Amino acid sequence: MVEGRTLLLTGVLTEDSIAYAVARRAQEHGAEVVLTSFGRARRITERVARRLPDPPDVLELDVNDPGHVEAVRDALAERWERLDGVLHAVAFAPEDALGGRFLQTPPESAEVAFRTSAFSLKAVGAGLAPLMGPGGAIVGLDFDATVAWPIYDWMGVAKAALESVNRYLARDLGPRGIRSNLVSAGPLRTLAARSIPGFGELADGWEEQAPLGWDPADPAPVADACLFLLSPAARAITGQILRVDGGYSALGAPLTRPSGRK
Predict the structure, then answer these.
(1) Residue 22 lies in a domain
(2) Higher pLDDT, residue 189 or 80
(3) CA angle 61, 118, 143 (to 5 degrees)
(4) How, if at all, do strands 179-185 and 241-244 pair?
(5) Mind giving me the DSSP string for 150-214?
(6) DSSP code of 69?
(7) The whole model's pTM is what?
(8) Is residue 117 part of a domain?
(9) What does 99-154 look like in DSSP terms, one character per residue?
């Protein structure tokens, strides 16, 4: 699906990350790949990158630093004639913005969650769009923001904002032939997910209730959906959310009740 396409992938930190699965599948399908990371985590990403079939370069990118976005754009312009696709796999919320502390979260923590998890899609998309032409694609990773999950709190709010940012990106980049879409994945046991209080309960309930079943240790179905949206096969799709969750979101059954309710 992506043979010969040039892709910039954020979010590779460990081998169980969705972005790592996307990178592996992309290379297996003939794409050229460059990864990003920043700070102390960059060394970890570089080490993990060496386990890919064709170890890619890792560029420094803090999505909250406009200077980093510009530097990555310049580096890619020197490397490739064009950029065909970007994977936005970046999300973060401070500890006090998760785990049932919604009412106590200070505004500063909510702002960090919004800027890193939602506004950064605009920052990266707008910053790299000059390298992309008709057929270019931006894909972000999402988690269902249509309901209030018991543990997700301000990250859930940030994901709702991400979905809105995606629609506005699709509106503004569409005239250039650039698409923007999200993949809303079921819970996967990534390093980031395991840091969320109560994640294990969420994943276990998902396995039981998804009509197709759900393996929280297997990111391959999500990776393949990302590749589809990054490919020319999705050329008429933009501003959308592709749900890859075993069908759980079609049922509408809550996994747990809020704490304190009988």
Answers:
(1) yes
(2) 80
(3) 110
(4) parallel
(5) TTTHHHHHHHHHHHHHHHHHHHHHGGGT-EEEEEEEPP---HHHHTSTTHHHHHHHHHHH-TT--
(6) H
(7) 0.93
(8) yes
(9) SS-GGG--HHHHHHHHIIIIIHHHHHHHHHGGG--TT-EEEEEE---SS--TTTHH
pLDDT (average), residues 108-120 = 98
- For residue 194, pLDDT over 80 is answered with no
Report yes or no on 139 lying in a domain.
yes
Closest CA to 7 of 190, 231, 165: 231
By mean pLDDT, which of 61-65, 131-135, 192-196 is the weakest? 192-196
Q: Is 4 helix (H, G, I), strand (E, B) or coil?
A: coil
Residue 245 DSSP symbol: S
Cα distance between residue 160 and residue 154, in whole Å: 10
Residue closest to 239 by CA, chosen among 114, 142, 123: 142
pLDDT level of residue 197 (50, 70, 90 thresholds): low
Looking up residue 80, the CATH number of its domain turns out to be 3.40.50.720
Whether residue 261 has pLDDT greater than 60: no
Number of structural domains in the chain: 1
Is residue 244 situated within a structural domain? yes
Q: Where are the beta strands (DSSP E) in 30-69?
A: 32-37, 58-60
* C-beta atoms surrounding 32 within 10 Å: 18
pLDDT of 262 higher than 50? no
Average confidence score pLDDT of the chain: 92
3-state SS assignment for residue 244: strand
Predicted confidence at residue 195, as pLDDT, reads: 66
